[in-house]
Specification:
Elements lengths: L3 H42 L2 E5 L4 E9 L3 E5 L8 E4 L3 E5 L2 H4 L4 H5 L9 E12 L9 H10 L1 E12 L4 E23 L2 E25 L6 E19 L1 E23 L2 E15 L2 E4 L3 E2 L2 E2 L2 H11 L3 E16 L1
Amino acid sequence: MKNPDINCQGFLFLASSIRVMVRSILCKVLFVFGVCVAFGSQKAQAQDLIVTLQGDSIESKIREVTDQFIFYRTKESRKEDLVISRREVLDFRYGFYSEHIDDYEEIKVVDPQKHDRIQVYGSAGYARSTAIDEDANQEFINEYLEELKNGWYFDVGVRGYFTERFGLGFEFTQSKFNNELANIGLDLDTTTYFGNLSDQITMNHFGVNFIYRIPFKNSGTSVILSGGMGYSTYTNDAELIWDYTLEASTIGMMFSGELVLPLGGNVYLPIKLKLHSVAYTNFDITYGDAIVRNQLRPVEFEDILESSYEDEFISGARLEVGGGILFAF
């Protein structure tokens, strides 16, 4: 017969061994779980990358991104949110340190210049001039002059930017306004002369503009406002039975606003609204052929033109609306 004390001791020893083993396994499991949690927490807290325009790299956990700011946390800030303006950020990447470790140096050395420095452009469109006198007693002449106010324009220019927003530009603009009326009669003294009435007006402007650009972040779209002064010329190759040319020059002002839309790469579509303000005086008159359709140009014709434009002062605005193409560098 077995001793019951020996059986009891053996059972206690076995129970004690099992308890120690379970405790050891449990400790190891908790240790591994704690390491995983800590490692995962560390990655969750600092797995994103923010690169500033100064070239600094911030290992962080990005909490929120708005149009103006990025809210984030770092290991040092712990549970306190930090904020940085998006104007100061070159780039940011979610999960960068968990997926793109090998690309870190490539991101870090990116040129912090984010905006273009030079823009070369050209555009064309509709032009409307108010610098055309409409003081006439005959209705058909008023209709003729009203149609003459509608024309077209084109421009070319270059801009250079000192900063992302401010710059200086040089622009040449040419606007044309044409109309013609056939078989009219002109009474001079006691004689009626018959021929054509036509105007071919060319207005040029070459000026310097101050530029202010309003960029829309992360879209490539911008609004550009400009204004300045320049040299403006007026030429009218006209016909009133006989040919003659009017010429004048002065200093004019130009203001414009445009919406610049990205087309891909460094190519953009500018949609423009321009306003020219100018005043012409001291016209020079050059006469063409003295005989047209066997009609000798009378002295009264020259007297009328010279008296009309000797002290003539034509002022007004020129409105232009159009679109074109812009290359940025």
